[in-house]
Amino acid sequence: MEHPPTNPVSMQAADHSNREREVFEELQTRLPGIYAAFGDRAAEQTVLIIPSLSLDPEVLAKVSGIHHYEERLLCLLILLRLPRVNIVFVTSQPIDDSIIDYYLHLLPGIPGKHARRRLTLLSCHDASPAPLTQKILERPRLLQRIRKSIVNPSASHITCFNATPLERSLSVELKLPLYACDPDRIHYGSKSHGREIFRAAGVDIPDGIEHLHDEDRLVNALAEMKLRNPDLKRAVIKLNEGFSGEGNALFDYDPAESPELRQELQDRIAAQLPNRIRFEAPDMTWDAYLEKLGEMGGIVECWIEGREKHSPSVQCRIDPLGKVSVISTHDQVLGGPSGQVYLGCTFPADERYRLAIQEAGLKIAHILKEKGVLGIWGVDFVSVKSENRWTHYAIEINLRKGGTTFPFLVLEFLTDGAYDAECGIYRLPGGQARCYYASDNLQKPRYKGLSPDDLIDTMVYHQLHFDSTAQQGVVFHLMGSLSQFGKFGVTCIAETPEQAEELYRKTMRVLDQETSQEAAVFQSDR
């Protein structure tokens, strides 16, 4: 048989990709030594922070103020409390100096000037929706400036929001290891592969069908689930690479649909599906959603019903030394049309089930470790109580820093405590507990026009700012999105969950009062 001619361009691309993987794997062998030395106050190291949201730009565009979400990794500036750590922080657009000063003044025991000297801020000056890492790779002079900013390259590494082939290319370009999951393994964080991981770990999952890539398979899956469970009322459709619930959609079954006639059931679902699906993302259309399903695939799961239902999550770490650990549990605060969009979280998770979901998280962690996964990641659950028994359904793996990562890092870096996995509580050296209520989505039209300085001044005046002596108070983030979008985030740290939530509500009351007065003055002037 005659073979088709070989495409030399494809061969060159494949060779380049293979060479890049080989170099990347060699760089990654340096991580265990770097990780083991991290925290040594005498060790000079540089952390290159790349807060790129290397995700589907059309899905990200549905999130208000998304280009400011790079600021969430500013919590890592608190690493400057280690006196010989240097940080290079790269963003798409420059960050306001007042925001940087705010984080540097949070540092316990380190003069702001000393910390500022060890911080290098670089920007692409590019507001386009392309991922930050792509922008960096397209700018040779910026790459050179990054190289010149790295102190002691042999003891330095890159950290990022999520790892894709773009971040691997950057790692190889800069000859720095990447403390994140190998991009060749990120598919384990997709909705479809996540269900396979859950089965291997032996944890409960909702009834569902994965690896769907077109409308016909989606219709067949919805019909199959109804045939399995004639009483099923709703199903949730999820894009494999959806972000913060924005890739989810809810489908309501027609009570008149008969589960006995498969073909009739499929035909009826196919005819009504475009009009009976409800999207979590605003302005999403059926045609656009179907196109995304074709590109990235997805799953269908039964909607978990329950009178008492919660959405906890477990955050785990697989470190470069091979140690597996649970680092936190949370109860998620959800919103959106059907309550699937992440708005915030409380730490720790409810004491009635936090140890149970820790155990499930560890089972999943050991499966992922066997598959070569590295770094901080999380698992989301839907937990339902029935007859005094909790059932925890694993629904998603996030192989990236998620919405629960940032507030926990703030707590960990600003206080001198540690997470006690035996009881699921974070304790200071004196034994006092610390909890928090955190949100990325404090957003109101009346907040528009406020600057970061306005927010900080208001909180200082009302004594809500973080107090390093008491090790409690409010820490802000996403302040860059405040003026244009009226949106920012908080982490409210206190001794009990009730105190943390009250601190959150007090923050809201104070800000509402301040902005309502301004609105009244504005109206009277008119």
Give the SSE layout.
Layout: H1 8-28, H2 31-37, E1 45-50, H3 57-60, E2 85-91, H4 97-104, H5 112-117, E3 119-123, H6 132-137, H7 140-149, E4 157-160, H8 165-174, H9 191-201, E5 208-212, H10 215-228, E6 234-239, E7 248-252, H11 262-276, E8 277-279, H12 286-296, E9 298-302, E10 308-310, E11 312-318, E12 324-335, E13 341-347, H13 354-370, E14 375-386, E15 389-398, H14 405-414, E16 418-420, E17 425-427, E18 433-443, H15 452-461, E19 473-477, H16 482-485, E20 487-494, H17 497-525
Parallel strand pairs: 1-2, 1-4, 2-3
Antiparallel strand pairs: 5-9, 6-7, 6-9, 7-8, 10-14, 11-12, 11-14, 12-13, 13-18, 14-15, 16-17, 17-18, 18-20, 19-20
Helix pairs in contact: 1-8, 9-13, 10-11
